[in-house]
Structure formats: C-alpha cells, structure tokens
Design brief:
This protein is α/β, with parallel strands linked by helices. The chain folds into two domains: about 5-295, Alkaline Phosphatase, subunit A (3-Layer(aba) Sandwich); about 300-460, no CATH class. Helix content is about 25%, strand content about 15%. Strand 9 (about 310-315) and strand 10 form a beta hairpin. The radius of gyration is 22 Å and the shape is globular.
C-alpha cells in the first residue's frame, strides 16, 4: 500500500504570471523559478473569477461561485458548504490552514485542525495538508499610504534589490507616467518578497526530510491589482501561474499546456489523497492516475463588485478568449471606492476627463461595453483588439458562444436570479444595504454611466440595462 502523500498548497495574492520561469525578464523570483525547474510549469491555468472571495470560494468547494451562490463580491452564503479540507480530514489528513479564508462564507466548524505557522514547527506525524496565503502582494500594498514591501521585509527577504520604476513595462491599457511606474515597481518588489517567503516554506520541507513525499502546488487567486486586470475577465485577470512539484511522479523542468481551472484543484487534491470526490463537484482531476482528458475550455465570471453591478461570463480555450457582457450599457470604469484608492486610478481619471488618454489607454474608460468580445491571446495577450465583429472569426465566435451557453446551462448560473431573491430564499444573508451605503458615499462628479448606477440585478433590470445577448 502506498504511503499517503503530504500536500502543500501555496497561494499568491493578486499576482499574475510575472515570474522568471514564465519568461518575465523583470522578475526576481529565484525560489519559484527553482520550484518550476523541479516540477511542471502549467501555461494555461485559470481562475473562475478575477477577484479574491469568489475565486477562493470556488477553489475550496470545487464549484463555480455563480453556481454555488457566492459569486458577488461581497456576499455571504447563508449556509456554508463543505470544503475539500473536510474531505481530507475524513481521509485521515491533518489540516493546517493558517492564513486568509475569504470564501464569501464562514466555513463549517471543524473544517481545519489548526491555524498556526506550520513552517515554524515540526510536521505532523500523520499525512498533512498545509496552506499558506501570501498577502504581501495584495492590491492594497500599492496604495499610496502603504510603504514598499522591501522597506520592512521579513528576515528571509532582507537585502533584496528593489526594482527601478524606470525599468518597468507599462501595459498598453495603462498610461505611461511616473505614478504608474512606481505602482508597478512596488508590485514587483512585493513579488520578490513573496518569492523569498515561498523559499522559506520549501526549506521547511527539506529540513523535515519530507520534500520527496510532499506534492507542492503554487498558484494565485487572480491577476494583479491594476485597472483592467484584477476584477476584470481579460487574460490578465484570470490567466495565472500554476506550478506543481511531485518528486518521482512528475518529470522535472517540464511544461504542460493543458487547460486547468481552479475548480479542478479540490477534486485533484482529493484524488491524490485517495479521498472520495463529492458528486456535486464541478471540477475535474488533472493529476495522477485518475486524471481526465484535458479540458477544451475553462470558464469564468464577474458579478457585483462591492457597490457596483455587472454580469460578465467567459469561455477560454488555449487560444481564444470569449467574453459576454450581459450589461453592455455599463462602462468598465464605474466608480468603486476600494479600487479608487490606487494612485493610478486618480491619474487616469483626470487624464481621461481632460482628453489626454490616447489609443489603448482609453480602453478602460469607454462609456459602453460591446455585448461580445473575442480575443486571439496568442497574438493579443493584453486583449486589446476585439475580433467579435470580424467575419473571418465568425466560426470561432459561434463555437465559443456555444461552449459558454452549454456550460451555463450545466452549472445553472444563479446570476439569473436577483440578489434580493437569493436573500429571500435563504441562499444569501442580506448585505445589500451595507453596499448601498457605500454607493451613497461615491463622489457624484466621478460617477460614470447610468445614474443612479445599479448595484443589483434588480436595479439594472429596472433601469433597462440588461440586454439579451447571443
């Protein structure tokens, strides 16, 4: 009988594929690069949501948040589902989840055995699952009032060289100015600290003599905290790093182009642990003897973000990125209080209002969205050139459309039901008034789009903003 496998799940917060092993020449990430050289680097790993709580909530339940009901950011399920950690416990695993929860539900009692800094103590005698979220890279780290992560680093990150803002690459959807470059440099500095923290966790495995009997997975929750990245369903928001090291089972320094979805994490970990996979899981196994055939598409969605409403769904294959905007009359740049704390938002809003943004810089500030978007991510990784109206792409558009339709029918998209109804039906607790209060605090001079601007589906319906799309 095989000895049960230990599992270490490491999750970066608000980070994209800005790693040396993914070809980013600006990155200084030696520990994650080494981890990739010892295992498999996945080129097509995707979250089902471009924001933290729906992303994590789906990952720990193996279900799409818009099927489970925790798709709004923020909302709270009235009845907490089981997490995959409980299935691991039933299979004899010791679970130490010591950091961030943020699932849009409060987990059931006993969902973990311990919440402690496991990397500072001896490993459990029984098979274990340990989790670490690295919050140093969170979007808020780039807010003006927050100091650079390298100014007060943890011991393992002392002496790291800061990134030069002048050396940063500014994506085309952002304006190139000192404030933007400074913010991106702070992001890379924080990623370097995260990398050093990962190195310390991996060293713990070595010190415990467990590196050869532990599968290590590194991934992110969603893209970095910049406009048109975090919270948005473009490639930069959901196309993420995924590195897996499994000594003796996965060939070192290899690349896998299979499509992997974050709803696949839970069933895969249970399969590797020899634990039964719940029937209501919507992901599939991508590692080990029970691995299924690679996906043809992954899927994602965006819904209410704090005090602003939206409904967006995505189908993505290895090349083509299809987006359906169910409320195309709503602009991308609705005012959202939390996001506006970034210096970059004030700079870009001012430039936009003064007519100083040019070309792709204006993409985020258009007053309406197209009902459909289609991008060739092999040739357009920033998703700047919408091909949905190109006759040469008609067959591709039709295929991606059909894939999304089939998916939403299969999982039953609860975004078709108003939030008020979900509360009345005891699916969600009522947090609607909490966020309506935030709406009232929004500076009226910065409100873009229909006013009063909607916060729920019911609002959008009453304002005539929802359109039937293909």
């Amino acid at each position: 009988m095989k000895k049960p496998l230990n599992i270490m799940l490491l999750q970066g917060e608000d980070v994209g594929r800005h790693l040396g092993c993914y070809g980013d020449l600006k990155a200084r990430t030696p520990h994650l690069d080494k981890l990739a050289s010892q295992g498999v680097r996945y080129t097509h790993g995707f979250s089902h949501a471009p924001v933290c709580a729906p992303s994590r909530g789906g990952m720990v339940t193996g279900r799409y948040p818009y099927s489970l009901g925790n798709h709004h950011m923020r909302s709270t399920l009235a009845h907490a589902p089981r997490t995959f950690t409980q299935e691991l416990q039933d299979a004899g695993y010791y679970v130490n989840w010591n950091t961030k929860l943020d699932f849009n539900f409060e987990p059931q009692e006993g969902w973990r055995d311990e919440q402690s800094e496991w990397y500072e103590q001896a490993a459990p005698a029984q098979p274990f699952f340990v989790y670490e979220n690295f919050g140093v890279t969170h979007e808020s780290r780039m807010f003006p009032q927050k100091e650079d992560a390298l100014l007060d680093p943890p011991p393992e990150a002392e002496g790291l060289k800061p990134h030069d803002p002048a050396d940063m690459v500014v994506p085309p959807h952002l304006t190139d100015c000192p404030e933007v470059r400074e913010q991106i440099a702070k992001y890379y500095n924080a990623y370097s600290v995260l990398d050093a923290q990962v190195g310390r966790r991996l060293q713990w495995l070595e010190d415990q003599g467990l590196a050869d009997s532990t599968i290590v997975i590194f991934l992110s929750d969603h893209g970095r905290g910049l406009p048109r990245e975090k919270r948005w369903c473009y490639d930069a928001g959901i196309h993420l790093p995924l590195i897996v090291r499994w000594p003796g089972q996965l060939e070192a320094d290899t690349v896998c182009n299979d499509l992997v979805a974050w709803v696949d994490i839970a069933p895969t970990l249970l399969s590797l642990a020899g634990a039964p996979i719940p029937e209501d899981y919507q992901g599939q196994v991508f590692l080990g003897e029970a691995a299924t055939e690679s996906r043809e598409c992954v899927f994602a969605g965006r819904d209410r973000m704090d005090e602003i409403f939206d409904r967006v769904r995505v189908a993505r294959d290895a090349r083509w990125h299809y987006i359906r905007n169910f409320a195309p009359k709503l602009p991308w740049c609705q005012y959202q209080k939390y996001m506006e704390q970034q210096k970059i938002m004030g700079v870009m809003r001012k430039k936009w209002m003064q007519g100083e943004l040019q070309g792709d810089e204006t993409a985020f500030f258009q007053l309406e969205k197209p009902a459909e978007e289609l991008f060739d991510c092999e040739n357009d990784p920033y998703c700047m050139h919408n091909l949905a109206g190109d006759p040469a792409c008609e067959e591709i558009l039709s295929r991606m459309r059909a894939s999304l339709d089939q998916h939403l029918d299969e999982v039953v998209d609860l975004a078709l039901i108003t939030e008020e109804e979900l509360v009345a039906n005891d699916v969600l607790t009522d947090r609607i008034q909490e966020y309506r209060g935030r709406q009232k605090e929004s500076p009226q001079e910065l409100i873009v789009g229909p006013t009063p601007f909607p916060m729920t589906l019911r609002d959008a319906q009453e304002l005539g903003l929802m359109e039937r799309t293909p």
